[in-house]
Amino acid sequence: AGRGAKEAKKDKKSKKEGTRVERHNNRAFSVANVVRTQRNIQRNLDKGHSKEYVPLKDRRALVEEAPPSCVVVMGPPKVGKSTLIRSLVK
C-alpha cells in the first residue's frame, strides 16, 4: 500500500522466486515514553471506574455512631494507597 509500481513489481517477482525478505520495523509500533503511557492507561481506567454506578445505602440510620475523626493509610511506594483512598471516597 502506498508503494510505487516498480517496487510492487520487484516484490511480486521476489515472491514468485521465493527470495522475498519480510522486513519489520520493531520501533514503528513501540511506545516512546513508557511512564507517560502507563500514567495515561491508569488515568483512563480511573475515569472508567468513576463512571460505574454504586447505589449508596441509607446512612441516616447510623446517627448514634460518629465516623472516625482521622484515618491514616501507610505503606511503601507503589502499593495502591491512593487507589484505596479513591475507591473509599467513591
Describe the structure.
With 90 residues, this protein is mainly α. The chain is built from three helices and no strands. The protein has helices spanning 5-17, 34-50, 81-89. The protein is elongated. The mean pLDDT is 81.
Sheet with the most strands, sense and barrel status:
none
What proportion strand?
A: under 5%
In terms of quaternary structure, what is this? single chain
Helix fraction, binned, reads 40-55%
Give the low-pLDDT segments: none
- Strand segment count: 0
Summarize the helix and strand pattern as letters. Answer: HHH
* Overall pLDDT confidence: 81
Rg, rounded, reads 28 Å
Query: What class do helices, strands and sheet pairing give?
Result: mainly alpha
**End-to-end separation:** 49 Å
Total number of helical segments?
A: 3
The general outline is elongated
Provide a concise account of the structure shown.
With 90 residues, the protein is mainly α.
Please describe the structure with a list of short key phrases separated by commas or semicolons:
90 residues; mainly alpha
Map the helices and strands.
Layout: H1 5-17, H2 34-50, H3 81-89
